[in-house]
């Protein structure tokens, strides 16, 4: 029993097969159709689809103009890509601590760290619970920075009845198989800023300029295209976008199923000593990607190993990013973000996916109860 799994049915297979039989395998009309579907879910004017959630972060940071000498604030409790894609652009990473209850970036920590060098404040919607972007935006504005919402876990979530995607200056999604919907590999950048969307689309396509009105040498010939700023090939093909279109149209179904899984865990584990369950604040409606529990009394490794021995393939999300040797070699040291480090030392992600069978979930609950009894 994995901790996360895609939910593919015959309608997904048919959508991909139709794309394979069509005229366009990539850079065709299904890309635009998928971007329109994402923008509608996110509450934005446009979206730019890319090859992965990591690519989405790289594109978003590039579109924000992140460069050498800039600082980017990220939460310590996240997958490394939230930081590494900014590092690749030359930014100095500043790690903020997280909130005890949600695992999301702590606005008080951000406020203490923001300076005139801060270019972007990145908030991760840990487990699917939206970060409080409304609190982060004024902190960013005071520093002259943008807010990026890393919503790899949270497409379909809302904060104060507004969809994730419409809250921050830039938002990125991931469509990896364990996420809330999938394109096998894929991601997206959304924004209500036309300038940021244009910059994102340019970086996704090598930075090529095809509009003659914007070219430096427009009379070179009808074939001519130019690069003014470097970009990369992060294009998501029509074949995968066809899967995405079909998946995103089932997002409400996926959300209802994941909510039912969340509530069953809450009912089955809520009275268990030695365990803290995830928090849901009253002003959010999460699309749950993870069900992170915190095991007390130094028993996390024991519980992890015993669950795996029973075929329950739990995971840990995540080791503080600055514990990775790459960042350690840059001078970051353990103890920097104590709440994130404590969270990591206790956290286990239980199986959470849309088609998790109730009997399998009961098996997880019974196994945990037996171990912690």
UniProtKB/TrEMBL annotation:
One Pfam family here: DegT_DnrJ_EryC1
This protein's record includes keyword Transport: no
GO function terms (MF aspect): transaminase activity
Highest taxon of the lineage: Bacteria
Family annotation (InterPro entries): DegT/StrS_aminotransferase, PyrdxlP-dep_Trfase, PyrdxlP-dep_Trfase_major, PyrdxlP-dep_Trfase_small
Cofactor: pyridoxal 5'-phosphate
UniProtKB keywords: Aminotransferase, Pyridoxal phosphate, Transferase
Similarity section: Belongs to the DegT/DnrJ/EryC1 family.
Name by which UniProt lists this protein: DegT/DnrJ/EryC1/StrS aminotransferase family protein
Species lineage: Bacteria, Bacillati, Actinomycetota, Actinomycetes, Micrococcales
